[in-house]
């Protein structure tokens, strides 16, 4: 299991298993596994045909279907990567309660019950426990050990399953796990609704399922590919339940709009407080450019570090989109290249050895506490902790004339812009009905010249600047309205002479010598704070018009080196459409807003002095690394 041995096997082992291989080497059966309350969950079990051996179980619980259905119908790949199917495990795929072919009622982000008083007190932890217990008794050839994995919503089920876990669950890998749908995962960011993602997902996933079925519902038809136009025509969120749109057909969409604060409804669906006393070894996986659940991966790891110190917990963060470590080569995103097939490295040197060690007694791969990919330099780093404690907090201040200053400017002042929800700043320079994954690294030049976007440039860097951890935002802002959103984007500006490594000369003497990537303003991280939630997500407060007010929040972690010769840039704006819903810019229940409620407002960002608007970066020393 040594790294060199894995590297030599990569080309052959990481090739897809293929349908013929799976059918030749595995037998399949479908069962209904009873839960403690009598409901039965549909489960597909793939068992190696080779006799005379025992195998650990690899469990995946999903709301997205265990298709293909039918004992004569086989998946073309088994396990988290092709390495697993070729090694040999008992693979178990289960439709969670109330989804597809399983009995019961489906509950989004099932609240965890700390105390279970009887067989009717069920949650995802108990359903996982009951599933494992049944498998140990009824899946011939198992060796008494179970591993669980899942990406996104299945990542939530994995994280929930490792709470009060069955003793046989030895290893769990929550990957991009949904953790808190109001604070930072999927549908909300600090209270702002991630509109196309939430709407598009729920219009399909959220359709009612009156009885068990293997069929997916009819997809929602937007009638256009232009998301900006579609959601602008919708007007305020108050129209989203009109017959033309959701029409009250989607129960969870209606529930979301009915709970505009971090109230008991959302708090019950926050998994973080329950991640304590976790017994299985944990490998939490996330992507730096995951537009959906970057927050969840980081928060699961932090919760375990804080609340479950005895857990054997490891973190992996790579340069990936949502689930990219299992679905892409991980060598590029949009125009940004990462220098290697990072997904293959992860699968062969981290994920597979982790499960082999805990389930098959393979040698300990001696994984560090954090295996993290540093973008900019494009290198894997083995760290003893994340965020690295040696990172030092360094403030960079918004200064006059669109500059960034590394010391507090003496002169005080303010920059202003008019934010108009009827003319919102687009988040994407293209036509898309949803949330294209490339937006996380997209060139921001297409909005840098807008009058409702403030731009602050740090000048050419004389040496590398490595930022490792969450970035703190401290804005001092005022508005002529009573509410406003504040979007802060941290950007890596490429040198004008930057060469596109994949550009091929055509021999045309009139062809420009300059790369289209020269001067690119690559988004490194962007986040929003809905202003009324600045002090509490549970108790929103209006702004007093014209009064300078502190707006403090954190951007999700980064591990990025701004290379010597590049520039650090910060952009500030108040709309980011249709990525997030439109704030009417007056204090109200936005879920009930219509375009009649929209108000243009003048936003002022105050600067100067030690308490002026600034970002605090966790800067990692670059010497000796």
Q: How many distinct domains?
A: 2
Q: What is the CATH third-level topology name of the largest domain?
A: Rossmann fold
* Count of distinct strands: 25
**Broad structural category:** alpha+beta
Q: What would a concise description of this structure say?
A:
By secondary structure, this protein is an alpha+beta fold.
Structure description:
The chain is α+β, with helices and mostly antiparallel strands and 625 residues long. The protein folds into 2 domains: 3-179 and 271-383, 3-Layer(aba) Sandwich (Rossmann fold), CATH 3.40.50; 392-498 and 513-620, Jelly Rolls, CATH 2.60.120. It has 13 helices and 25 strands. The chain has a 10-stranded mixed sheet, sandwiched between helices. Strand 1 and strand 2 form a beta hairpin. Helix 1 (3-13) packs across helix 12 (342-360). The longest helix has 19 residues, at 342-360. It is globular, with a radius of gyration of 25 Å.
Task: Note the topology.
Elements lengths: L2 H11 L5 H7 E9 L5 E9 L6 E8 L19 H6 L2 E6 L28 H15 L3 E10 L1 H9 L7 E7 L12 E2 L2 E2 L1 H11 L21 H8 L16 H8 L5 H4 L13 E7 L6 H14 L5 E6 L5 H4 L4 E2 L2 E2 L4 H19 L9 E5 L4 E5 L8 E8 L3 E3 L7 E7 L25 H4 L4 E8 L4 E15 L5 E9 L27 E10 L18 E14 L4 E7 L27 E7 L6 E7 L5
Parallel strand pairs: 3-4, 3-5, 5-6, 6-9, 9-10, 10-13
Antiparallel strand pairs: 1-2, 2-4, 7-8, 11-12, 13-14, 15-16, 15-25, 17-24, 18-23, 19-22, 19-24, 19-25, 20-21, 20-23
Helix pairs in contact: 1-12
